[in-house]
Amino acid sequence: MTFNDNAKLDQNKVSRRGRNTGIAVGGGGGLLVIGLFIVSQLLGVDLTGLAGGGGTSPDQPAEPIANCDTGGQANDSIDCLMRGAATSLDTYWASELPTLGETYRTTDIALFTGSTDTGCGGATSDVGPFYCPADELIYIDTAFYDELTSRFGASDGPLAEMYVVAHEWGHHIQNITGIMNGLDLQATGPASDSVRLELQADCFAGAWVGAAPTIKDESGVAFLEPVTQEQIQNALSAAAAVGDDRIQSSTQGQVTPETWTHGSSESRQKWFQIGYKGGPDACNTFQVATP
Ligand SMILES: [Zn+2]
After folding, report:
1. Which pairs with CB-CB distance under 8 Å and at least 24 residues apart come from 265-271?
2. Is the separation of the CB atoms in 4 and 225 below 8 Å?
3. Ligand 1 centre distance from Cα of residue 244 (Å)
4. 219 is in which domain, residue-wise?
5. What is the dihedral angle through the alpha carbons of 52, 260, 289, 36, rounded to the nearest 10 degrees?
6. Residue 26 CB neighbours (<10 A)
7. Is residue 194 part of a domain?
8. Cα 37 to averaged position of ligand 1 atoms, centre (Å)
9. CA 34–ligand 1 middle distance (angstroms)
């Protein structure tokens, strides 16, 4: 998707943090963090890197990103693209969620490089993009987008990058609506709560993409131009690239569905498309036998 050049972006949705040199690694907090996938799992370590900070507020100053005022700028830089996606997603969910009988509150994106403190503890880029329910923020190291194409084989393109943001925003929706409450997120496997939660976030991402060309700024300018088939393919490619089976076969040489936490490439694409066509109401991953 391409932004309309003169669409006006929200000035508060995205900030960038300076590099954190004093990260605490280790400890065993086990605070809930919900990512696009768990990179460290495929690197053979656990998430202790995320447990160091103990859930305190981030102590790094977050500077709002500069010179990202318009859709035209969102088309030109990755930081501004993040703000463009955030502005459209925020506008979408602020109007959509009340129609589903839920109250919306916003989230923000914290961009970082290398490592950062979060309300869920210290995090490094190895975790990949993630949402922290404790501070209700989305954390993204934009260098991940290079990895998404080079290491995970996704096709390039802004919609693939915005799919990542929309997926994490979906986790925020799950958090504020109570969907996350009472789930067994330790369990794994194709029908586990973890996989259902992840596939629903993919579905919510698809729902936003489906509605995106109708979402407008205060002056009535649509943030995004109509989506092309090629761009949809890019988003599906990103969804497939972070499927558990795809990652397992490339990293461990075999596929073990009983350990899945995010769902297969096929399922992730399927649920993105269900949301794209049917909106958030169709994202009933917890109601079907196997999502
Ligand atoms: Zn996720």
Report:
1. 265/239, 265/240, 265/241, 266/240, 267/190, 267/195, 267/199, 267/243, 267/291, 268/198, 268/199, 268/202, 268/239, 268/240, 268/242, 268/243, 269/236, 269/239, 269/240, 271/199, 271/200, 271/202, 271/203, 271/206
2. yes
3. 12
4. 14-282
5. 60
6. 10
7. yes
8. 6
9. 5
Residue 3 has which token pair? 């932004």
Tokens in use for 26?
A: 């280790």
Would you say residue 59 lies in a domain? yes
The candidate with the shortest Cα–Cα distance to 64, out of 5, 22, 105, 10, is: 10
Find the 262 Cα to ligand 1 centroid distance in Å. 7
Residue 73 within a domain: yes
Give a yes or no: residue 287 inside a domain.
no
In the structure, ligand 1 is a single-atom ion and the residues with CB under 5 Å from it are 198, 201
Give me ligand 1 centre to Cα 130, in Å. Answer: 7
Residues 6+ apart with CB under 8 A from 25: 48, 49, 52, 122, 124
- Residue-by-residue pLDDT tens, the chain, 291 positions: 799 999 999 999 999 987 554 443 333 334 566 766 654 443 333 333 344 444 444 456 678 888 999 999 999 999 999 999 999 999 999 999 999 999 999 999 999 998 888 888 888 888 889 999 999 999 999 888 888 888 888 877 889 899 999 999 999 999 999 999 989 888 899 999 999 999 999 999 999 999 999 999 999 999 999 999 998 998 899 889 889 999 888 888 899 999 998 999 999 999 999 999 999 999 999 999 999
Q: Is residue 206 a contact partner of residue 268, using CB atoms and an 8 Å limit?
A: no
User: In whole angstroms, what is the distance from residue 1 CA to residue 230 CA?
Assistant: 9
Domain count, the chain: 1
